[in-house]
Specification:
Layout: H1 2-34, E1 37-43, H2 49-64, E2 69-74, H3 81-92, E3 98-102, E4 108-110, H4 112-119, E5 122-125, E6 130-132, H5 145-163, H6 170-178, E7 182-184, H7 185-190, E8 196-197, H8 201-208, E9 212-214, E10 220-222, E11 229-232, H9 237-245, H10 248-267, H11 273-290, H12 296-315, H13 320-334, H14 348-374, E12 388-391, E13 398-403, E14 406-412, E15 421-428, E16 431-436, H15 443-458
Parallel strand pairs: 1-2, 1-11, 2-3, 3-5, 4-6, 5-8, 14-16
Antiparallel strand pairs: 6-7, 9-10, 12-13, 12-15, 13-14, 15-16
Length: 459
C-alpha cells in the first residue's frame, strides 16, 4: 500500500514540474513573439539584374513576415542604371521602412549605390566609409553632347524626385552626379545626405528607436526598434549560382571552353560527352552574358579571330594570321562587356590568357582535322601496296598470293616459285603486281659471318 502512495506522490510532483516547465516555455514563446524583428539583407556585389532580383525579394519578404524594418548592409562600387532603378523603385514602394547602412568600415556606396542609399527611409554609414561618384557612365560608348546632357538631366531629376521628399540635401546629392563628388561618412552627415553614423547594427537600431521618419508619401512614422532581433536573410542556392555565373570572367571561360568541347565533338563524333557538356557550358555563358551589357562589335571581333585561326591552320600564313587572330580575340574579350564600373568588366589577365590558350588549342585541333581530311582513304587494292606477300603457288607469271591474311590474284614480272617472299608494287583493277622482295639488310652481316666461318673451317 505504501508503495502505491509513493508512486502517486512521484507522479504528482512530475506533473507539477511539467506544468511549470510548460508555463515557462509559453512565457518565453510569448516574449519571443512580442520581440520586434528586423530583417537584414547584405548587398556586397555590383548592381546588376541578379543583385536587383535578390533585393526585390528581400523587400517582399520583409513586407510579409511582420518585420519592423528591413536593414540593407551595402558595399558596392555601382553598376547598371536599369537595375538600380528597379532597386530604388522597390525601396520607395516598400510598406516596411528600409534602412540602408553602408558598412563595414572601408565599404562604399559608389555610383548606382549612391542612388540606392539616398532612396532609403533611413540612410546610415559606418565610420571609414564613403559614398558618391554617381556620374552616369555610358555602357555602349560615349554619345554626343545632346544625348549626354539628356541622360545626365534624367539621372539628376530621378535623384531629386525622392531626395527632396526624404528631407535631404538635394544640392549636395546632385553634386555627386554632376561632378562625381564623393563624401565620407562624417561629410555625408554634415551635408544632410544621411541620417546617422553608427559603428554597428545594434548601435544603429538603438539610435533609430523612437525616431520619427517621413515616408515617401509624406506620412510620418515612428520607428519602434527597441530590443529588436536582427534576422539575416540568406541567399538561395539559385541566387548564389547566378551571382557566380554573372561574373563576366566566368561567363567568358564557359563560352570558350564550351566552344572547344563542341568542336571536339564534331571531329570525333559519337563521344557524346564533350558535345553535351560543351552545349551546356555555351548555353550558360549566353544566359549570363544576356544579363550584362554586351558590345556587338566585340562579338564580331571574336568571330573574326576564330576565322583567322581556321585560315592559318588550313592555308598556313607563317603565323601572321594566328597573331592577328589572337589580337582580335584579346580586344574582343576586353571590350565584350560594356561595364559601367571596372568590377563588371573582363579582367585583362583573363582575356590575354584565354586568347593565347584558345588560339593554340584551336590551331592544333584545326590542323589535325585538315590533315585528316586531306589524307586519302586507302581501301581495297590500294591498301595492299607496300605490303609483303607470299606466293601460294608458282607465279608464271600469274597466281595466288597471301597478303595480310587475304588471298589475292597477282602477276609477277618473272616466274616466282611457291613460298617466295614478294612485295606488292601496284595493281591493275583487282590484280596485284608483285616483285621479289629485297633481302633484309640485317641478315647480310650474319650471312657474311657464316661464309667466313665456313671458309676458315675448310682451311
Amino acid at each position: 500500500m505504501g508503495r502505491y502512495k509513493n508512486r502517486i506522490r512521484n507522479a504528482y510532483w512530475l506533473a507539477l514540474v511539467a506544468l511549470l516547465i510548460a508555463f515557462g516555455f509559453s512565457d518565453s514563446f510569448r516574449v519571443a513573439a512580442q520581440q520586434p524583428i528586423v530583417d537584414k539583407f547584405v548587398l556586397d556585389d555590383t548592381i546588376q539584374p541578379v543583385s536587383s532580383d535578390e533585393l526585390v525579394r528581400a523587400i517582399a519578404h520583409a513586407n510579409s513576415d511582420g518585420a519592423r524594418a528591413l536593414l540593407i548592409q551595402m558595399d558596392t562600387p555601382g553598376g547598371m542604371v536599369e537595375s538600380m532603378r528597379a532597386m530604388v523603385g522597390a525601396i520607395l514602394g516598400s510598406h516596411v521602412p528600409v534602412i540602408v547602412y553602408v558598412s563595414p568600415s572601408g565599404a562604399r556606396a559608389g555610383s548606382a549605390g549612391f542612388f540606392i542609399l539616398e532612396s532609403a527611409d533611413v540612410a546610415a554609414m559606418a565610420p571609414g566609409t564613403e559614398a558618391g561618384a554617381a556620374h552616369v557612365v555610358f555602357e555602349l560608348g560615349k554619345p554626343d553632347a545632346t544625348e549626354m546632357q539628356k541622360v545626365e538631366n534624367d539621372a539628376e531629376a530621378f535623384l531629386r524626385s525622392y531626395v527632396t521628399r526624404r528631407g535631404r540635401n538635394a544640392e549636395a546629392a546632385l553634386a555627386a552626379v554632376a561632378s562625381s563628388k564623393s563624401y565620407t561618412a562624417e561629410e555625408s552627415l554634415n551635408q544632410h545626405l544621411i541620417d546617422v553614423v553608427a559603428n554597428s547594427d545594434e548601435q544603429l537600431l538603438s539610435e533609430l528607436n523612437g525616431r520619427e521618419i517621413v515616408r515617401i508619401d509624406g506620412a510620418k512614422q515612428t520607428l519602434q526598434l527597441g530590443g529588436a532581433r536582427i534576422v539575416p536573410l540568406s541567399s538561395t542556392v539559385r541566387d548564389q549560382l547566378l551571382g557566380w555565373l554573372v561574373d563576366p570572367n566566368i561567363a567568358l571561360l564557359f563560352l570558350v571552353g564550351g566552344a572547344l568541347l563542341i568542336y571536339l565533338e564534331f571531329n570525333t563524333p559519337g563521344t557524346i560527352v564533350p558535345g553535351a557538356l560543351g552545349t551546356l557550358m555555351v548555353l550558360l555563358a549566353v544566359f549570363a552574358l544576356n544579363l550584362l551589357p554586351i558590345r556587338y562589335t566585340a562579338v564580331l571581333l571574336l568571330i573574326g579571330g576564330g576565322v583567322l585561326f581556321v585560315l592559318e591552320a588550313k592555308f598556313g600564313g607563317h603565323g601572321v594570321l594566328a597573331i592577328a587572330g589572337i589580337v582580335c580575340l584579346t580586344f574582343g574579350m576586353l571590350t565584350l562587356v560594356a561595364a559601367p564600373v571596372p568590377q563588371m568588366g573582363v579582367s585583362p589577365y583573363v582575356a590575354i590568357s584565354v586568347s593565347l590558350a584558345f588560339g593554340a588549342i584551336t590551331l592544333f585541333l584545326v590542323r589535325l582535322a585538315v590533315r585528316a581530311r586531306r589524307r586519302k582513304a586507302s581501301i581495297g587494292a590500294d591498301a595492299m601496296i607496300g605490303f609483303r606477300a607470299t606466293a601460294m603457288e608458282p607465279l608464271a607469271p600469274e597466281g595466288h598470293v597471301l597478303v595480310e591474311g587475304e588471298i589475292w590474284r597477282a602477276v609477277a614480272s618473272r616466274p616466282v616459285p611457291v613460298g617466295a617472299v614478294l612485295s606488292v608494287v601496284g595493281h591493275e583493277n583487282m590484280l596485284l603486281r608483285v616483285e621479289p622482295a629485297p633481302a633484309p639488310r640485317q641478315s647480310e652481316p650474319s650471312d657474311a659471318g657464316e661464309t667466313r666461318d665456313t671458309a676458315s673451317r675448310s682451311a
